[in-house]
Amino acid sequence: MTKNELLSNLPAEFTKDLVPEIHNLLIESKKTIVVLDDDPTGTQTVFDVPVLTDLNPDLIKDAIDEAPPVLFLLTNSRALTPEETTTLHQNLGEILKEFQDDIIVISRSDSTLRGHFPLETDTLRQALGIPEAPTLFIPFFEAGGRLTVNDTHYVIEDETATPAHLTSFAQDNTFPFSHSYLPDYLTEKSGATVDVQSLSLADLRSGDITKKLEQLPAASTCIVNAASLTDLNVLSLALLKSDRRFIIRSAASFVQSLAGIVSRPPLDPWQLQDLEPNPNGGLIIVGSHVPGTTDQLNHLLKNAPDLVAIKLSVPDMLNSTFNLGNAIASIQEALTSGKTVVLFTSRKRIDGEENLAISRRVSQTLVDIVKGITTRPSFFIAKGGITSSDIATKGLGVKQAMVLGQILPGVPVWTIGNETLHPGLAYVVFPGNVGGEDALTQALRKLTS
Length: 449
Description:
By secondary structure, this protein is α/β, with parallel strands linked by helices. The chain is built from 16 helices and 18 strands. It folds into two domains: 257 residues, 3-Layer(aba) Sandwich (Rossmann fold); 180 residues, Four-carbon acid sugar kinase, nucleotide binding domain (Molybdenum Cofactor Biosythetic Enzyme, Chain A), CATH 3.40.980. The strands form two sheets. Strands 9-10-5-11-4-1-3-2-16-17-18-15-12-14-13 form a 15-stranded mixed beta sheet, sandwiched between helices. The protein has a three-stranded antiparallel beta sheet with strand order 6-7-8. Helix 4 runs parallel beside helix 5 and helix 14 crosses helix 15.
């Protein structure tokens, strides 16, 4: 069906602008929204927000002590095994437990329903000592066209509304799913009967859901329907006024809503440049294999003929026949001559290509290449959630960053810290599943204009 057909005959949106009141309530509470981000693309709706990628307990405590309104902790847990993410979230829950009165915890994950859920939220509930807290499940993401209507989650592309289980995202080898009707999705992912509740669009568009939140059964999971950011703002205001504890699993839009952050236009080209003139070319690394990324890569290669394109063979990486030194030398030569390089993994899928073990081997090769590049690129785009996380933390050595804003809707840009290989560089965290066919080309043109 079309987007218009999906949204027809819905209750009218609540008209009052709640953002100033939400923002003021958060500031007055002196609480910090701590976002546990399972890949770095969760920063795609915020700006002027710190990101901590080093999860050392002392660093986390110091960061919370500074009391920022929002703090992102990059877990990159979508690249972890269930056992690894359980241990990580147990440890994080124990660290955060001592700050319970001063923080609101959000488990941020994919708007197309992939990730370790409900494992991560169940682990957090126990580690934080709030086993009776209801879970709010909020996959709505405005910039990516992910809407939840009548408890069914949709992906909007070219004005067509497709149930999420009929998209390529549902075929993910690591996190597959077969339901878009979220009560069935929750049962599928839990492997057991779940106490499923729902906040409908009629509830949210009434403007007051205080009683609905109070009446949620203990340890239940509540689907939050949303077709606009205004819908989420009604929920955010009620949450900030409530004394009840909740576990929150959301996509990126809810972070913006709960923090009372106004929407801001994409960054201008001048905001993305090095402070000092840099004659070198830029570097684009494409690791994501979702179909949308491949379409964007093909558009880029066709419409940016001055690029130096370097294709990396995944079979060669897996068979240890890949020549790392040659790849680094080719990139360095192009960058110093002022050419922008696009480095991409081969697109043909091989058996098991998407499983975690193989993804890690490919990602490690990309990391080794980045570590070997001594020339500072004039800009850096990393395409794909796991790719951008590993390159940032393991390749560039990022321990902390500041979210500068977005280069395109839903595509965040970080300013990376002084501890990195290239201090202060604009680092574009480009989600694999965001943007139309020409989005990567648009980003390149903005960075080189």
